[in-house]
Amino acid sequence: MKKNIGNQFAFYPTPVIVVGALVDGRPDFTLVAHIGIVTHDAALISLNKSHYINRGIKQSGALSVNVVDESWLEKAAVAGGVSGRNADKSALFGYTPGGMGAPIIDEAKLSMECTVEDIYERGAFENFIVKVVNTFAEESILTDGGKPDYEKFKPILFEMPGYTFLKTGETLGECKSFIKNNGRN
Ligand SMILES: Cc1cc2nc3c(=O)[nH]c(=O)nc-3n(C[C@H](O)[C@H](O)[C@H](O)COP(=O)(O)O)c2cc1C
Question: Which end of the chain is least crowded, N or C, by CB within 10 Å?
């Protein structure tokens, strides 16, 4: 028997990223966990309108998505605790400008350079619909075929209401094998 716990928003855990963008020509970095896949080639990044970085994203139409793993989690968390409006976060990470100028974080083993396709406003949030232009990955986290290997690269997840970070990195098996085992194929 399941207990009805009300309209608890239970879409967690979600991956943790640091978004990078130029604001008036200076890099700003913001920690974000409210992200989602919209189609196979577009994702949604939900940012409170009050954040300093939003203006920069709208100015340039570009941002970087830097997927957080444990090796730089503490530094990444700083990007979620202080606003670029009050402090210069441009020196928080090493970075390399992407083709459209968005700062790609050197510490991140996996980063994407994205263009903004659309902005969906809802309440206090600007939801940026983004398309990936380039993906940059450290060789050490790739399979022999050159794709991200999620046993080598272990993105950190975030959940509410506990407000905690969680680990990933253990493969249970190929999805196909589960579907067959349940007699569906
Ligand atoms: C774990 C964690 C997750 C966060 N996720 C989001 C998020 O999904 N959307 C958002 O608008 N702010 C989120 N924040 C808050 C921003 O990262 C924070 O307010 C930041 O200082 C804004 O920086 P800026 O003003 O320089 O853009 C999160 C903060 C933390 C600590």
Answer: N
The pTM of the whole model exceeds 0.85: yes
Q: What pLDDT shows up at residue 80?
A: 98
Task: Check: CB of residue 13 under 8 Å from CB of residue 159.
Answer: yes
Q: Is residue 148 part of a domain?
A: yes
Residues in the chain: 185
Q: Give nearest CA residue, ligand 1 atom 9.
A: 47
Q: Is the CB of 33 under 6 A from ligand 1?
A: yes
Other beta carbons within 10 Å of 26: 13
Q: Provide the CATH number for the domain around residue 156.
A: 2.30.110.10
Q: What separation in Å is there between the alpha carbon of 3 and the centre of ligand 1?
A: 32
Does residue 38 sit within a domain? yes
In a domain, 5, yes or no: no
pLDDT at 175 (0 to 100):
94
- Nearest CA to 16 among 110, 151, 124, 100? 110
95 is a domain residue: yes
Q: Give the count of domains, the chain.
A: 1
Cβ(12) – ligand 1 distance below 6 Å:
no
Q: How many CB atoms lie within 10 A of CB 78?
A: 15
**Whether the CB of 100 sits within 6 Å of ligand 1:** no
Mean pLDDT, all residues of the chain: 96
Q: Which domain holds residue 45?
A: 14-181
Substitution site in 26, 32, 54 for ligand 1 pocket (most atoms within 8 Å of beta carbon): 32
